[in-house]
Structures are given as C-alpha cells and as structure tokens.
Amino acid sequence: MTAPLVAPSTDESRSPAPVPRSVLTPRDALALGVQGLRGRRGRALLTSVGIAIGIAAIVAVIGISASSKANVLAVLDRLGTNYLTITPGQTLGSDEQAQLPPESVGRLSLLDHVQSVAATAQLGVTVRRTDVVPATNTKGTVVLAAEPDLLSTLNGRLRGGRWLDATPRDYPTVVLGVTAASRQGVDLSAGGQLVWIGDQWFAVVGILDEMPLAPELDNAALISTAVATQKFGYQGSPTTVYLRTSPADINGVRDVAAATADPVSPQEVDVTRPSDAIEARAATDSAFTTLLLGLGGVALLVGGVGIANVMVISVLERRGEIGVRRALGATRRHIRTQFLVEALVQAALGGLAGVLLGGAITVGYGLSMGWPIDLPVVGLAGGILAALVVGGVAGLYPASRAARLEPAQAVRPS
Fold first, then answer.
1. pTM for this one?
2. N or C, where is the chain less crowded by C-beta within 10 Å?
3. β partners of residue 161
4. What's the pLDDT tens digit per position in 7-21?
5. Final residue before a domain boundary, out of 273, 308, 343
C-alpha cells in the first residue's frame, strides 16, 4: 500500500506574523508634547505668557479680595460690631444742625445692656503747627473735647505716647489722630512737640493709631473736657456719643437710643452703627472683585485664542511629521492625543507661572497694606484648572485637524 504523499513544510505555507499595534502610553504622549514645545520655544513662551497673565490676574484678585476680607473681619473682631454712634441730626423745619442735650451721655449710660458711653464735642477753635501760621492753615484738623474713657470705649490704641487721662485735668495737653499728626508734622520721637490751639500752646502727649470704626478721630486734635471747659468755655453739649453695648442687645438699644438721648426731640437724633459702613464697603469690594475677575477671564480667553492659533500653525508646519507617524502606524487617536497634550502642557506652564505671579502680587500688596495674607487653596488650584480647561478647549480643533490628515496627503509637498 502506497503511503500518502505529504507536502513538504515550507515558509510559504506559514501564516504571516501579526503586525504589532501602535501604542501611545500617557508617558509617551507627555514626552511628545514636551518635545513639540521645545522645538518652538519662543512661540510657546509668548503664548504661555498670555495664559500666565490671565491666571495671575484671577489669582491676585481672589487673593487680594480674600486678604481684604480677612482684614475687615480682623478689624471687626478687634474693635467689635457692638457699638453705636449718636449724633445730632437736622432741626425740624430748618437746615440748622440740632444739638444733643448735655445730659444725653448720662441718660444713655443708664440704659440696660450698655457697657460704656463716651462723647466728643467739636470746639470752635483752630489748631496750627505754630502761632505764626495763618488761622486758616489748619490742614483740615478739628479740635475735639474728649472724655477720659473715650479710648477704652472705642477699643482704640495709641501709636505712641499716652492718653489724656494720664495727665493733670487742667494741664493743656493734646492727643492727635494719626492723620492729624502726619499733616501737622508732629513726631513724638523728637520730644517736646507743641501745637497752637486757640491762643495758646498745647503739649502733644500722644498719637492715636488708626480708628477704622471712628475715622473722624484720625484727623482730630483731642483735648480733655476739663481743659475745654476751662480754656474755651465748653458747655457740655456733645457732637458725637459713642455707645458700646452687648452684641445680642444692640438692636434693642438702637431702637431706644434716640429717645433716650433727647426725649424732647428724638427725631432730631441720628443713630448709626459704624460697622455697617465697613460691611457695606466690603460688599462694594466684592462687586469690584467680580468686575476684576471678569477682566482676568478676558485675558485668559485671549491666551486660549493664542494657544489655538499657535497650535493650528504648528499643525500646518508639521504635516510631514504627521504623515510619517501615520505611515509608521500611528492612529488618528494618537495624533489627536499628541497635539492635545501639547496644548495642555503649554497651558499648564502658563497656569503655574500665573499662579506663582498672582500669589506674589497678593503677598506683596497685603504686606504693603498691613493685611493678613489669605491665599485660598481653592483659588490656586482653580487657577491651574482654569488654565488646563482653556488649553484643552483651545487644542481640540488643531488636534482634530491634525488627526484628519491622511498619510499620503500629509507628506505631499505643498
């Protein structure tokens, strides 16, 4: 029996080996993206600057706004929101200024939940640096008679020297507000500083620190009520009464303060809460912050347009590279990923630089203003995230355009 013929084994009868698939790992994509930017460093740097400016503006605005708010809260915590200011209003039926009765301070001090009361009264005299200066050259400084417990009632502080209650009651001494001292050229470190009030010299014994809740004292010269009575005939009618109460009862005290200060004409008494003005200013700052954030967003948008423009040009310039990579097995997804990663890396570099620049601006501005520095982590992370989002959106079209190029079309000479 004849054995069956068996075909000899040859290489031609074997099935062809499978072609390995092109693989683009995240690490490779990042390396390609960085390599693409290194090939056009100048253009990439200028485009990243646009992103950096937008992010820096946003971070700086958020940081400065947060620092300003922290400063306001610190001021309110230190000075308190639990005090009222009572001043005379307008006389009914005329434009003349009303007057508070001399007994108003004593009456207000008898109210329940009132912790302390102090008053000042504006005197009709001038203050000048010397007696040879014209009487009109007061530099805006007003002379106020002040009660000894004014500083404690306002939780105020002295920048230097001592308060009026540390000197004899009839001795002609004066404490200047911080602005008044600067305008009058008074420096306690020089020693023996005098100012001319009315028709005699007064010794400057102290300078107040800034009074955020009583800014009218910053440009004032304060003398004791005893000296004001003895030297200038002060009759005891205050022009401003400062009242501190317990925080929980401030609204109740506010409701009865006018009638208590002047039972005859309560409608001629104005009662205000100074902390409301600071909170209103903080609200105004928030509105201004929103406007600045909008401007930062515009700068960021311009940076995104710049990235898109540079990436489109890059696709046109690198058609040969795209064609070769496609011919070697790179898929459309790989090409799209490569150019998208380039846009993201470019935006990330600009975002990081913007965050650092914005943080530096915030710290520098906060230190110059004497504010506590508050850089929200959410704002910093949001800045980098915003840059990545803008870069990603800006890189989508150029990346898709690169991926649509066919190998033969890409390597064909223009």
1. 0.61
2. N
3. 206
4. 455 444 455 555 456
5. 273
